[in-house]
Design a protein that fits this description.
Layout (H helix, E strand, L loop, with lengths): L6 E16 L4 E15 L3 E5 L6 H8 L7 E6 L2 E2 L5 H10 E4 L3 H4 L6 H11 L4 H14 L16 H13 L5 E5 L7 H18 L2 E6 L2 H7 L2 E6 L2 E7 H6 L4 H8 L46 E4 L2 E4 L4
Parallel strand pairs: 3-8, 3-9, 6-7, 7-8
Antiparallel strand pairs: 1-2, 1-4, 4-5, 9-10, 10-12, 11-12
Helix pairs in contact: 4-5, 4-6, 5-6, 6-7
Length: 317
């Protein structure tokens, strides 16, 4: 799928809702993604952060066309992914991949590592000899060695299983990988190893990552830019360094304030931001019910404002 577009991925006004309750006279929906727009350039990492239920994983699945959008536009290499021919669709599947949260459930326990990593190559019709070489290289690129090829997932540690999942993701040499909370099920020491591996793959292979996490520490280590989500809506997006050093939106401030100190002696430096719970207002800011800075003005939906070269969903940005 050739393209001269400078942007690898472009998402415009993406929305998705799920039916949660249905009666004879009424249907109730949960709005998982609400009018989301962003871009991801080649050889970049976009971090998507937010608490559980904010819509992070739904965005990832929409981008890879694993579920259908309700509205909006998704372009990959300058082409609308919903306009692909069958041939282009197959190429899209080859140029994108995914690493899921828990390798215990994403790896087939009945297959050896060799078979797990080789599976995408068989689907895309690679010859046996090339499959063999690519599998070996992918496993090595993921920080393992050839002795792991004949093992089963049950014989591996959590970090090793996630490396196998990453090897499977890179074996087709994709341009984009969705990493959906790939470190959350791992020990802290192993998390750092996986983060460093993703950095290495980005730098050496030129792979772009859509990196999803609820942990701002992890997001900050990896991302070139950050998108902060709350209830399916972007609260703040922009350059990672600026957002982490000087957050503007109250929700981003709360996320940063909730991080543990880097050393026990720094506990007294923690900022305390009061958690507020008030009744929601229909048609107002989605963060109104929890915002410590909300006023009556917030009962009306804010527009996005460009502040310090980033977009912020707040009346007072």
């Amino acid at each position: 799928m050739e393209s001269h577009s400078p942007t690898l991925l472009k998402v415009e006004n993406l929305s998705k809702k799920f039916l949660i309750k249905k009666s004879l006279l009424k249907k109730e929906y949960f709005k998982a993604v609400d009018n989301v727009s962003f871009t991801l350039d080649y050889n970049q990492v976009l971090g998507i952060v937010g608490e559980s239920g904010s819509g992070k994983s739904t965005i990832g699945r929409l981008v890879l066309k694993l579920i259908q959008k309700d509205s909006g536009r998704i372009e990959f290499k300058g082409r609308d992914i919903y306009s692909f021919s069958r041939k282009e669709e197959k190429q899209f599947r080859r140029e994108t991949s995914v690493v899921f949260q828990d390798p215990r459930t994403s790896l087939n326990p009945r297959l050896r590592v060799r078979q797990i990593v080789e599976e995408p190559l068989i689907v895309h019709g690679f010859e046996p000899e090339e499959r063999k070489e690519r599998v070996k290289k992918a496993v090595i690129d993921a920080g393992l060695d050839e002795t792991f090829l004949d093992r089963y997932p049950s014989e591996l540690s959590g970090g090793q299983r996630q490396r196998v999942a990453i090897a499977r993701a890179v074996v087709l040499q994709p341009d984009l990988i969705l990493a959906d909370e790939p470190t959350s099920a791992l020990d802290v020491s192993v998390q750092l190893q996986i983060i460093n591996l993703i950095k290495k793959l980005k730098e050496e292979k030129g792979i772009s990552f859509l990196f999803i996490s609820h942990d701002l520490n992890v997001i900050g280590m990896l991302s070139d830019s950050i998108l902060v989500l709350y209830r399916g809506k972007i609260m703040e997006k922009g350059e990672a360094g600026k957002i982490l050093k000087n957050p503007i939106h109250p929700y981003t401030k709360i996320l940063l304030a909730s991080l543990p100190p880097d050393h026990p002696s720094h506990r007294d430096r923690l900022k305390t931001i009061p958690e507020v719970y008030r009744e929601e207002v229909e048609g107002g800011c989605v963060f109104y019910s929890r915002c410590p800075d909300a006023t009556d003005k917030c009962k009306k939906e804010p527009e996005y404002k460009l502040t310090d070269n980033r977009e912020v969903y707040c009346h007072f940005a």
